[in-house]
Amino acid sequence: MTSYQKSIHHYSNFKVLEDKGTFGSPFTQRAKTTKKKTEPPTLKKKIYCVTGTAPAPCKDFFELVVHVDEVIFRKWRVKFNKNGKSGVPSEDRMNHERFLDSDVVQGEIERNLGGDALHMAVGHITQDWLPRLPIKALTNITSYLELSDISRLHQVCSVFNKRLQQDEIWNDLLSLHFEIIVDENLRAKNPRKSLKWIYRQELIKMKENEIDWDNI
Question: Which domain holds residue 160?
Answer without folding.
Answer: 130-209
